[in-house]
Amino acid sequence: MQSFTEENYLKIIYHLAELTNNVQTNSIAEKMQTKPASVTDMIKKLADKGFVDYIKYQGVTLTEKGRNAAIDIVRKHRLWEVFLVNKLNFKWDEVHDVAEELEHIKSVDLIERLDEFLGFPKSDPHGDPIPDKNGRFAKNHFTKLIELKIGDSGTITGVSQHSSAFLKHLEKLGLTLGKQIQINDVTDFDGSVEILVADKQINISREVAKHILISNNGKN
Amino acid sequence: MQSFTEENYLKIIYHLAELTNNVQTNSIAEKMQTKPASVTDMIKKLADKGFVDYIKYQGVTLTEKGRNAAIDIVRKHRLWEVFLVNKLNFKWDEVHDVAEELEHIKSVDLIERLDEFLGFPKSDPHGDPIPDKNGRFAKNHFTKLIELKIGDSGTITGVSQHSSAFLKHLEKLGLTLGKQIQINDVTDFDGSVEILVADKQINISREVAKHILISNNGKN
DNA sequence: AATAATTTTTAGATTTACCTAAAAATAAAA
DNA sequence: TTTTATTTTTAGGTAAATCTAAAAATTATT
Ligand SMILES: [Mn+2]
Ligand SMILES: [Mn+2]
Ligand SMILES: [Mn+2]
Ligand SMILES: [Mn+2]
């Protein structure tokens, strides 16, 4: 059984490993909002417990056991987010912090019943896939909106930024999950993108376009 | 903001204070499954923070602030128990341990929305009253089944023992909340009680009868 | 009132998760 | 290939919550 803190480390290592196989001490420290020295301490402990493989100065990788533990926490986090949005009427920008706490509740039974209660959802309110009880899930294969060309179209199916500020902004622009969009123009000056959504033409900044994920996109 | 541990101390002191106004160090230690020396340490801290009044060797009493904090935790615990039983189909004997964890999730918004989602329940699966968001609740005024006389009748509206073993036993006997019962006889030999429930005559031990709470009882 | 039993507190340690400052290793630049 | 910069680790320490053993206070019993 892992502590609250160990679970947070595992989850963060897991997410960082999605970007780079070998995860650096400093990246973990940044995400954990702690100091590199503390991370080294914890890494040693996680290695002792068999959750990570660790070579001094070479960063860490999750073991099978570590990855499973991490995926289990991700599963809980996302299921709770679905619960908060679908059952308790939270907005998608309000759920992350509460889910950060709920994900640590230890009861296999609880999470399986919750999954059932929610109708075995496949993705969370931000479009992220929810692992099943065996840890399996389809890896999303989205294109960033910023990478689309003029004339391309598709459906908003995810976001790669979960901050409340960003999500509220999208909401205001009407850019929510499931919405159909089309690229009309890309501004030379600042890289902002003109898109068509719900029959309206709007302009979004490059920064915003970077974090919107599109699927099912018909290239021009 | 209180820590997980502080919250548990406050809740336990609150429950003990329902029995005796001045709560002893040893009773707290027993309930917390810790040592008296640890309790003394924590009591000092809680006193510093203004949650309890404390005089050396004289035990503790909750301050207004401490009582409010404790009631808030009790409210969360009981609401989560209702959720687990009514929405996730847990049995009444399976919910306590999970609720012990869930009660520490810190989000006022969450618990108010949960309350609403559940339809503002007035009591939990064990018949215990649920404080409203202002901490107000009707204090139950039940009679222990053991105190009834032959011929008395009433409705099972609570239990004063929450162990899984006890609750499972009641379930098997058909002695669940809302059931109508009548006292038919009390055995001289062992103090066991003959009761009528759902047209069936059953015998329950003195120990069981002590922990069943009856309301609305028509005396003979 | 004196003695014994119980309860409670202090003293001193331990464990977990942190921290700062300095040393060591690795990577990048000159 | 040195030198410099960055990353990572070690060393030593702190705060929270716990523990054991022993001392002190309170309560109960003779
Ligand atoms: Mn989230
Ligand atoms: Mn999410
Ligand atoms: Mn309970
Ligand atoms: Mn209960």
From TrEMBL, chains A, B:
Tell me where it resides: Cytoplasm
InterPro entries attached to this UniProt entry: DtxR_MntR_Metal-Reg (IPR050536), Fe-transptr_FeoA-like (IPR007167), Fe_dep_repressor (IPR001367), Fe_dep_repressor_sf (IPR036421), FeoA_core_dom (IPR038157), HTH_DTXR (IPR022687), Iron_dep_repressor (IPR022689), Transcriptional_repressor_C (IPR008988)
Pfam families registered for this protein in UniProt: Fe_dep_repr_C, Fe_dep_repress, FeoA
Major localization class: cytoplasm
Q: What keywords sit in the KW lines?
A: Activator, Cytoplasm, DNA-binding, Iron, Manganese, Repressor, Transcription, Transcription regulation
Q: Cross-referenced PROSITE patterns, in alphabetical order?
A: HTH_DTXR
Give all residue intervals belonging to the HTH dtxR-type domain. Answer: 1-63
- Recorded GO MF terms: DNA binding; DNA-binding transcription factor activity; protein dimerization activity; transition metal ion binding
NAD among keywords: no
Kindly list the GO CC terms recorded for this protein.
Answer: cytoplasm
**PANTHER family according to UniProt:** IRON (METAL) DEPENDENT REPRESSOR, DTXR FAMILY, TRANSCRIPTIONAL REGULATOR MNTR
- Into which family does the record put it? Belongs to the DtxR/MntR family.
Q: What does this protein do?
A: In the presence of manganese, represses expression of mntH and mntS. Up-regulates expression of mntP.
Q: How does it assemble?
A: Homodimer.
Q: What is this protein called?
A: Transcriptional regulator MntR
Give the lineage.
Bacteria, Pseudomonadati, Bacteroidota, Sphingobacteriia, Sphingobacteriales
